[in-house]
Amino acid sequence: MGEPTRFGIMGCAGIARKVSRAIKLSPNATVVAIGSRNAEKAHRFIKDNGLPENTQVHGSYESLLDDPDVDAVHMPLPTSLHLRWGVAAATKGKHILLEKPTALCVAELDQILQACEVNNVQFMDGTMWMHHPRTAKMNELLRQQHSDLFGQLRMVNSIASFYAKPDFLHNNIRVMPDLDSLGALGDLGWYCIRFILWAADYCLPTTAVAFPNPVKNEAGLLLSCGASLHWENGTVATFHCSFLAHRTFEVAVVGSKGTLTLSDFVNPFDENSARFTFASESSFKELVDGWKPSLPTNHVVSTELPQEACMISEFSRLVGAIKDGSKPEKKWPSISRKNQIVMDAVKDSIDKESKPVEIVG
């Protein structure tokens, strides 16, 4: 293993605490710098999160990006700042781990991705569940050598919600139009759309139709919404995301022969292992008074590293490969862009009072 990827963290947001821990746990990454407009806050972040005492503190994001000891940046900034600082980081040659949603719209994301391509830097968004070994196991059952157990994808349903307290609904950046104008759609809907796309093997749907009567706050920002997504072959997906409902992260993926379900798709109940249920060719007993013995099976997938550390490790591996002469991995920006395209279409349908919106890749 080569030299570890040296991370600079832009800002001291709550998610940065989780990612800084993940970087410490990853065998091929280290935190070398914190950038914050408040130096005292940055020093406190270093102390509170057990980072090395020699971690460099930068009093501005510009200074962090100018640091030659920083290879890559984790960017947990409000979405409205992603375009400015994403392009700036790429221009400085820093590899970018960008929190979701990646941008306010795909046009902004395209500018970030273009800067990354021009400057030969790796881009990845912070959708952590993608990197858990459970995801690889589920992929194996839905596709590859076990595809005969699942058949053709027919339906997906996804729910991501939590009941936000009054302080969140009034003061959190996710409900402030000038900082994160996508609200629940950007924060939680991003996860739902990503899982739907993953289940569809990243084949874009052709149409998005928002559910009527989304809930908004006084500033017009989305607190609860949902949509259906449609493919030309008849496959359909639905999702609901909300800051106003009990904490729920449910997914059901239904094929012509099988069904996959899980209840913690964003964050596993236990960081050391994760469960899901898979059923194939289920049927009732003759008198329809129960199910036949071929019941759904429970799968448990263990992991040595939590999913956020798996993400850091994979990102750092790609950065190391670029140092050795490889090109950036194009899969991750491509997936992010498709996620953003679908989210844009859903937002457009919401703004058009649930009229269908064509999705164009």
TrEMBL record:
Start and end residues of each Gfo/Idh/MocA-like oxidoreductase N-terminal domain: 6-124
Source domain of life: Eukaryota
GO function terms (MF aspect): nucleotide binding
A Pfam family recorded for this sequence: GFO_IDH_MocA
Residue ranges annotated for the GFO/IDH/MocA-like oxidoreductase domain, each copy included: 147-260
Family the UniProt entry places it in: Belongs to the Gfo/Idh/MocA family.
Protein name: Oxidoreductase
Record organism: Dendrobium nobile (Orchid)
